[in-house]
Amino acid sequence: MSLKYFNFSSDRIYKRVAFLNGNCGVSDRLTITGQIVDVPITEHQRSQKWNYTHSLPENIIRSIRPFMDIGISSIKNPYLKMEILQADSIELSENAEVVYSSIPFYGDDIGFFRENIKKSLNPGNYISKIYSLKQSEESDEADSSDECTVIGYGKLTVLPSEYSDYIITSDIDQTFLDTPLNSIPGLIETLFETPRFRVPIPGMPAYYRALQTAGGHPLYFISASPHFYRRTLSSLFAMHGIDPSGLYLKSFSGTMDGIVKKIISSLINLDKILEGGVKHAFDRSVKYLGSSMYNLVDQVAYKLVALLEHRLTQPTGAKEILIGDDIDSDYFIFTLYQFLLLSEISGENLTNYLYELKFQDRSAFTSDSADRVAELLEKNRKIHGNINSVSAVWINSAGDEPKEELMKNTMAKLPGDISTEKNLNPFRIYENTFELALISIDSGALNPENIREIWKELEGKTVKGIQYNHAYAEKTINSFPFQNADKKELISSIKNN
């Protein structure tokens, strides 16, 4: 790929697209959120057919790489319009009925928008369709139909207000994908990997498919990965037959332009950089990129805000299952989230607590993020009351060393004058996808017959010293502390696979 693709000159080619997070909620609290961006394209891609579900030309859906999207730029105060279409799936029909059309609205100064749907919709599946409008100089109306351009589609699921089943929220790295989070070269390498080279944890694609087919549970992914991974991840999910209700990634407007400019400058001034020797140049580049990547995936405040925003739209009786890993901070975030939902702490006491809170020797919140959490928590209390919606927390043991004791010490970081620990659902640690499937079956999130598809992806493999054969499966099932599932039925399902 030529260097011109990544230059910052005025003749660079862009295409405007809408990155939609997806939404799932009750009819009277539906909010469509996303960001409007310009993505860099080649001259050849200008004439290609585009898939607006993935915001990609059809011919590069399987070959997109995150590095190709580092040059994404946000749009200041985009002028937009939204339609909601009836649809059974994200594969939109040409004849889909328009059930709601918004008046024109603006995004903010970095392209983000939050638009409430001002109409009651029946429970079911819908598609949100975003148009880019050209504002008239004399009014807030679009100039003409020629200036009204479709720039993106997103998934919308409307739940009945009495919904009391599961809503699943999962991390991505080291929960779904085997991402080398503890390796700087490994993190940098992910920038250049196409969807087919991103390696899922064995069995996890079948696990997520089963979650969606077992009871139609809404499935959200929240990751602190940068937003320029979005198109690669969207393609990856489709490749594995996973259709998430939402995908939330971190936006870094300005941050990544700085990184790209540093890369380009390094390439242009290669001779000067190499004056100190090849090893010195390499070490300096790795240190710069590595520190930038670590900064990008720091996630406590970001994920907590995302969880609280998502909770705003949910039915009060919905039961959340949160899935993450022990590499970074998921277990801490999921515990803090429950605590805040239950506690009476508010106002200045809450913002001071969050601002002073440290996790792994790093400040977890800025003053702005602490204020945002306090604001969202108050809104949630007005809608739901002080209810812990979290039914279960499942944590993948992905680290080299067990962190169970460190995770248990999480409670020590909560305010000591508020006793809510007895009402928190503790995290449950699992070692592999098979154990996670058994936990899910015992909880009712999966049906016993779902074990067959998951076992098909595991059988015959050797992962982390475990040989996935019938002897292992039978031993694991027999030793598992089931409360509800029938062990004989599960063993029979695997043997008859």
Instruction: Count every beta strand, where a strand is a DSSP E run of 2 or more residues.
Output: 22
Helix content: 25-40%
Q: How would you sum up the major sheet?
A: 6 strands, mixed
Name the quaternary structure: single chain
Radius of gyration: 23 Å
Report strand %. Answer: 15-25%
How many separate domains? 3
Number of helical elements: 15
Secondary structure category:
alpha/beta
The rough form would be described as globular
Task: Tell me what the structure shows.
With 497 residues, the chain is α/β, with parallel strands linked by helices. The protein folds into three domains: 3-159, no CATH class; 166-202 and 216-229 and 242-254 and 297-414, no CATH class; 433-495, no CATH class. Helices cover 33% and strands 23% of the residues. It has 15 helices and 22 strands. The strands form six sheets. Strands 2, 7, 8, 9, 11 and 12 form a six-stranded mixed beta sheet that branches. A six-stranded parallel beta sheet has the order 15-14-13-16-19-20, with helices on both faces. Strand 19 (390-396), helix 11 and strand 20 form a beta-alpha-beta unit. Helix 12 (433-443) runs antiparallel to helix 13. It is globular and about 65 Å long.
